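Our consortium's second objective concerns turning raw sequence data into structural hypotheses that experimental partners can test. To show how far this objective has progressed, the report includes one record in full. It was chosen at random from the queue rather than selected for favorable results. The single chain below, 234 residues long, was entered without modification.
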Amino acid sequence: MQFTRREMLGTTGAALLLGPLGGLRAQPAPPAFADIVPGVRAFTEAVLAQNGFPGVAVSLVGPNGFSAAFAAGLADLDRRVPASPDQLFQIGSITKSLTAMALFALAGRGRLDLDGRVQDLLPEVPLPPEPISVRNLLEHSSGLPNSLDESPFLDVPGGRLWTGFEPGSRYSYCNLGYTLLGMIVERAAGMPYPPAMRSLVLTPIGMASAKPVVRGEDRALYATGHTRFRDDIP
């Protein structure tokens, strides 16, 4: 007999509910959420030691308003500065998740259609003729080239971008797509990207200390970035 994943989960759930009734065995009460913090801290320190990472900050959010934050390791190896949960860490492409949240917030307010054509939203960008939707950009299925260039106006043959496959037909990671989504956030929100992200995402989810853009004047707030010279040594 074959089961779908949904049926399997439903059957497993029923078994978990019915199992204890047969033997009338008492189940141990789940630990308080705060009780897991020491274990998470120990795990974090072990990961740092095993991988040779300098430091990390961890934030936990749980039910009933529970929250906790801690740091482990060093924020600056040369100066031996301990890491602190109050420091800022550059998050790189995790920014894409926050950009997606902003777009869904705009869609929920009727300011944006996720299935709308990017060509219509950004008519000044030399996009290819194949219809590309906002959703295609979000899910990395636009077919556009993956570029880290600061501007989407690339120096390409014919002065126009191209697609490597039919939009929506497959996945291919695309930084350029999220550059375009940042422009769409600005257009739909009617303000530059940094204040739009603060208004649409960071403030509503309580990330009041986060910065929506990397600025030199905030440098003192950041943990120092580190990279390995070689992969075979810490």
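The partners drew two points from this record. The first helix runs from residue 5 to 23. The CA atoms of residues 92 and 214 lie 10 Å apart. Both points have been shared with the crystallography group to help prioritize constructs.
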